[in-house]
Design a protein that fits this description.
By secondary structure, the protein is α/β, with parallel strands linked by helices. It contains 14 helices and 13 strands. It has 2 domains: 180 residues, Rossmann fold, CATH 3.40.50; 143 residues, Glycogen Phosphorylase B (Rossmann fold, 3-Layer(aba) Sandwich). The protein binds uridine-5'-diphosphate (UDP).
Length: 351
């Protein structure tokens, strides 16, 4: 068990289970370690492959999870149900003073419901983007002013809401200095496009998936530069099922965090349906085109770092052209990279 006793009376449980949760919880775990606060980690097993899970623990020097729920891939309902039941068992045995969850996955929902039923306070990191977990949380750590006002509009008491910034800025800052010694992956800076695509609404929909690939080929024709696509396991599985044509696109296995940061920083432009990647490209001052019809990161649109293209091949090309004409001098709306510090300070004070 990862316990270093100084604040004997404070014990924090971290619940996580997917790639973005590991990346965004890492700064909080580091802050708990730095302050010598008791904590333990519950890993749901929602992501379990080496490429999407273990590599991040290794690279971010995170301690191994204390508990593994091993829920694996099953239907969303069953997965959430298993997470509730198994988390409940652990929390009954090893009762923390607060449970921290991050984002909006089945792990977050399951973890939050189990904690609520046991009357254990819940801290929601990156609150206000989707609001299901927010309504049963006690501490809502809003990443931006926009998220804060969404929570207020939802009728959540302002005493529960704390504007802390997004821990992704902490993560980018902490890891950016480690990319210098990387194997450079044969990349020529600013001479390639980087793609990430994994959302169900895109890759589980044959027409959208194929349209997006058409859009990418249009970019390739126009700019004559490589289009690199580290493919998520879900997208790989669905591409096979739908017989998606990847001609002209450099499809590779998912890369680790440092490699992905390095690729983002050096890309001419990023095309994505990932939430974290929209944030990171905005922080890194790399233009972004989002392959969705809407976004939970409207701040990136407002500051001029991102455009929504949906799945239309023509819109994907025209948004790319527009973004490449813009000056990359937007402001980062996600905070100053001290979010983890602020979150832990609030917990120490209030619990
Ligand atoms: N990422 C990575 N390797 C990859 C693709 C993405 O390390 O091959 C990182 C990326 O830097 C970001 C996070 O994964 O921090 C985003 O996760 P994902 O797109 O799976 O989830 P979302 O942000 O959409 O919830």
């Amino acid at each position: 068990m990862t316990i270093i006793a100084q604040y004997l009376d404070l014990k924090v449980a971290i619940i996580l289970g997917t790639r973005p949760e590991i990346i965004k919880m890492a700064p909080i775990i580091r802050e708990l370690q730095r302050k010598k606060i008791n904590y333990f980690i519950i890993h749901s097993g929602q992501h379990y492959s080496y490429n999407l899970d273990k590599i991040f623990f290794m690279q971010l020097s995170l301690p191994r999870p204390d508990y593994r729920l091993k829920v694996g891939s099953t239907s969303p309902g069953e997965q959430t149900g298993l997470i509730i039941a198994r988390t409940e068992r652990i929390l009954k045995k090893n009762r923390p003073d607060i449970v921290l969850v991050q984002g909006d996955t089945n792990t977050v929902l399951g973890g939050a419901i189990a904690s609520r039923k046991l009357n254990i306070p819940i801290g929601h990191v990156e609150a206000g983007l989707r609001i299901l977990t927010d309504h049963c949380s006690d501490f809502l750590f809003a990443p931006t002013k926009e998220a804060q006002s969404i929570l207020l509009r939802e009728g959540i008491s302002k005493n529960k809401i704390f504007l802390t910034g997004n821990t992704i800025v902490d993560s980018v800052r902490q890891n950016l200095k480690n990319i210098a010694n990387l194997d450079k992956l044969n990349i020529i800076p600013k001479k390639f496009f980087l793609v990430s695509l994994h959302r169900q609404e895109n890759v589980d929909n044959q027409t959208r998936f194929k349209n997006i690939m058409k859009g990418l080929r249009k970019i390739k024709q126009e700019y004559k530069m490589p289009i690199i696509f580290p493919i998520h396991p879900r997208s790989k599985k669905m591409a096979k099922k739908f017989n998606v044509n990847f001609d002209g696109i450099d499809v590779i296995e998912p890369v680790n965090y440092l490699q992905f940061l390095f690729m983002q920083k050096n890309a001419k432009l990023v095309l994505t349906d990932s939430g974290g990647v929209q944030e990171e490209s905005c922080i890194l001052k790399v233009p972004c085109v989002t392959l969705r019809d809407n976004t939970e990161r409207p701040e990136t649109l407002e500051v001029g770092a991102n455009l929504l293209a949906g799945d239309s091949p023509d819109a994907i090309l025209s948004c790319t052209k527009k973004m490449l004409e813009r000056k990359e001098d937007w402001k980062n709306p996600f905070g100053d990279g001290k979010s983890a510090l602020k979150i832990i300070k609030i917990i120490e004070k209030k619990i």
